[in-house]
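Query form — protein MRG domain-containing protein

QUESTION: What is the three-dimensional structure of this chain?
INPUT:
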Amino acid sequence: MTQVAKSCNVPFEFHGVAMDGCEVQLEHLRVQPGKALIKLPLTPNIQDICTKYCKYRSQNYVMIFESTTEIMKGLCFYFDKALPVMLLYKSERHQYADAIRDNVSPSMVYGAGR
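ANSWER: The structure tokens for MRG domain-containing protein are given below.
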């Protein structure tokens, strides 16, 4: 991973801590199971981020608003389908099941906030 860190211009101080996802173990994280979950819902959520991106892109390029909107809808759809099967750790799936009720889409619950 050090080679990857160097090729991505990661500062030297972080080269020693770079590790592949499969190398991560609980003792490296210094957290206890169930104690590291983030509070949901997050703001901004995925749909908010995509909407803001569409508005930003259409300020200078009005002609591409429709295509950008379609792409962002597709991105949200893909996120909604991929999150429960590919993007969550096993320990996060119970929280997902609790957060996604009443046909609320994951892209309305998950996002960039902390």
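ADDITIONAL NOTE: The CA atoms of residues 33 and 62 lie 48 Å apart.
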